[in-house]
Amino acid sequence: MCRHLAYVGPAVTLGRLLSEPEHSLVRQSWEPRRQRHGTVNADGFGVGWYAEGDPVPARYRRAGPIWGDLTFTDLARVVRSGAVLAAVRDATLAGADGEAAAAPFTDGPWLFSHNGAVRDWPGAAAPLAAALPPEELLQLAARTDSALVWALVRRRLRAGDDLGTALAEPVRELSSAAPGSRLNLLLTDGAAIAATAWGDSLWYLADPAGGRTVVASEPYDDDTRWCEVPDRTLLTATPTRVRLTPLKENRP
After folding, report:
1. For residue range 102-127, what is the model confidence (pLDDT) as tens digits?
2. Domain ranges of the chain
3. Is 2 known to be catalytic?
């Protein structure tokens, strides 16, 4: 349904990550190689990045396709960062909230993206939504499944959960409430990355010697160091370490 990417490491331009590689995220917006659902990711895009010394990320999002945005091309050429999260979107439902529905979602130091779809939306997720405080529901940026998934993750982050737990528990809850959902989630705080492989492709490129890690829906080049993450797995990573943990569904 979407393609997304997160990076932590030495500062690089956005273009080096998102547009310059042969199979970059920009190219994946019209020609993904490993996308299992949908064919074109033209329903919006977003990129979030961290400036040195500032824990709160900046964002640039638009409702249209990334390939037609000349302002993004300029930003990508000059903006440098050591931590980035970006996504291109294929909407589950047509016309759903435009730019507000484009990842990354953010709160405080966090950036978040969801690649997939909650099955039987919105009915199947209604019990989980009902468990959220009304003020949190009223703060949803969009009326999409991804926005609700972010609300569930954000609640755990605010309660003090680490990045991995904040993703793993909502995935278990949603997979129980809506079996067959695709829940590839991606989260960063600017220092580390957490991601889940659940129903679609996920890959990582680890370069401990260079102090960098990239996690993405699919490789952006043909570097032989890219590794595929097994389905139903939690990935947690820093610039020098990647850890994979199997995820299990909640049982009634």
Report:
1. 999 999 999 999 999 999 999 999 99
2. 2-111+184-246
3. yes
152-194 tens-digit pLDDT: 999 999 999 999 999 999 999 999 999 999 999 999 999 999 9
> Which two three-digit tokens encode residue 145?
């499944």
* Catalytic residue, candidates 1, 2, 8, 83: 2
Note the pTM of the prediction, 2 decimals. Answer: 0.95
Specify the CATH number for 2-111+184-246; select among 3.30.450.70, 2.170.120.30, 3.60.20.10, 3.40.50.10540.
Answer: 3.60.20.10
The DSSP string of 131-199 is TS-HHHHHT-SSSSHHHHHHHHHHHHHHTT--HHHHHHHHHHHHHHHSTT-EEEEEEE-SS-EEEEESS
